[in-house]
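[step 3/7] fold_predict: job queued, chain A
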Amino acid sequence: MVALAAVALDTTLGEPRRAHPLVAFGRMARAIEARGYADRRIAGVLAWSCAVLPVVAITWWAMYEARSASPWLAAALGAGVLYLAIGHRSLGEHARPVAQALQAGDLGAAREAVGRMVSRDTAVLDESQVAAAATESVLENGCDAVFGALFWFAVLGAPGVVLYRLANTLDAMWGYRTPRYENFGWAAARIDDALNYIPARLTALTYALLGDTTRAWCCWRMQAPAWDSPNAGPVMAAGAGALRVQLGGAAPYHGVWELRPLLGAGAAPGADSITRALKLVRDGVLLWLGVWCALVLVAHRWLHA
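[step 4/7] structure written:
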């Protein structure tokens, strides 16, 4: 019921427009980086620990105190934490304008909208490449912003989902293979990889079950190992196969076209690919919540048999 309440809150309210906790955490992380940066892995480990562990500890303490006071208070607090960690509605709010602009034939607006979703150089993308960028972002963030949060909430409750989302945020800030972050961001990247290992494969399985299962499985097995990310590869390969589109390929970053492996199989992506990817994520959330509720009911009956 806590998970259902959190998803309902996200669907109804979306992300807070002001004072989002992750924005405040990002500012704190930048302050820690400014004071503790050094081109060494140990510096990154210490910075990650100083940023994440106190927040997780405070969350654990707050949940402990809430449970001691009232189970209803603990449930409300847990629902609030999970709501703040989920970005399902936000995913649609960012992706739908891209699809709508492509449907209207406004490539300039589509490039501008997809530029708010991805880090590649969107000004040089054609219609198919814009659609591919948005579709890839929906599939990958379906894991990072939705399914991963649900998984860690199921495993470790509110402290678990806080740990996951803060680690994910630091990976987005520090986890780059650039001269500045090659060593300092090593811990952020590796920890995020570890925390996402199981959620990514469950997400890929979800996409496969809800789309073209055979094609998704084949793409996952054959194409994912060639992708540079051990977790994004399975998610996007299975998602592209499930949607029967071809993603990946060359993409421009900082003025240079990077040759990436192809993902999926089928037609070139378009506006419809974006909307179908959003539907895939939405159906996956409903499937996870349904399975979750069924498991809880079975466990409840077994314990009280």
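[step 5/7] annotate
The longest strand covers residues 246-248.
The chain has one domain: 2-303.
exit 0
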